[in-house]
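ok trying this again, last paste got cut off
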Amino acid sequence: MTRPPDRSDAELEAARLAAIVSSSDDAIVSKTLDGIITSWNGAATRILGYEPEEIIGRHITTIIPANLRSEEETIIAQLRRGERVNHFDTMRQRKDGTLVPLSITVSPIRDATGRIVGASKVARDITDRKRYEELQRTLFDELNHRVKNTLATVQALAMQSLKGERSLEQAREIFQGRLMALSATHDHLSQNSWQSARLDEVMDGTLRSFGSRVARQGPPVRLNSHGAISWGMLVHELATNAAKYGALSQANGKVGIVWRLTPQNRLEFEWTETGGPPASAPTRRGFGTMFVERAVAGDLNGTAHFDYRPEGLHVRIGAALS
C-alpha cells in the first residue's frame, strides 16, 4: 500500500512547478472562467510588457485586439463544456499597443472536486517563425515569377531564332548562343540575390572571348534584374553580328564601347566598330537589328539608332535606367 503524499511533498511539488513557470521562456498566464487574470509569469512580462501588479486582476481582453475577442468567447465556451482547446496561432496586444504573433495552448484548471474553474494559457512568441514564413512566401512568389518570365523569354528566343529563311542548323546555333547569353546574365544576377547586376558584368559573358579587341569605358552602372537581362541579350546580338559580318569578323577589327549617365538618369550607350569591312545599310532589316530595336523600345523604354559607316557599324542607344 503506497503512502499518501504528505504536506511537505505537496509543498515541494508546488515549489517545483512554480520554478518551472517562473523560468519558462513562454508566457504562462492563468485566468478564471470569467476571464480575470490570476497569474502572470516573467516571460509574459517580457513578451507583452505588463508587470504582474499591472495586469493581475484585469480582464484577459486587455491583451486581446478588439477584432479577435470572439476567440476568447469561443475558448471559454469550450472550457465550460469540458471540451479540448487545440493550440492555435493568433495575435495579442502589448502594453505599448503593438501586436505580437503568438502560438497559444489552453489547458483547463480544475479544483479539488474536478470542476473546471479556470484556464491556463501558454503562449510562445512566434515572431521569428512568422518572419521566416513570410520570407519563404515572398521567395516562392519571386521564384515563381522569375521562372515564368524566364520560360517566356526562352519561348520568345526560340520563336525568333526559327524565323526567317535559315536552316535548322543555323537556327540551332543562333538559339544556343542566345541561351548562353541569357544563362551568363542569370549567373551574375544569382550572385546578387537576383536584385541587380553591373552593366560591365553583364557584358563580360559575351565579350570576354574577344579580349583586347573590345574596349569598354564608362562609369559603374547597376541594372535591375529586368534591365540586366535585356542588356545582356542586346549586347549578345551586337557581338554576334560583329563576329559574323562586322569588325570582329576580321583579324584587325575592333569594337569600342562607351556609356554614360545623363542628369536625367538615363543611360547612353555607344557601340563603334572599326577595322572591319565597310558597313552598308541592309536592303532589308535583319533580325539582329529588329531584336535590338524591340528590346530597347519594349524593355528599356528607349531608342536605338544604327549608323552604317564606311569604317564600320555605329550603334547609339538611349535607354531608361531603373
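PB: full thing came through this time. The chain has a mean pLDDT of 81.
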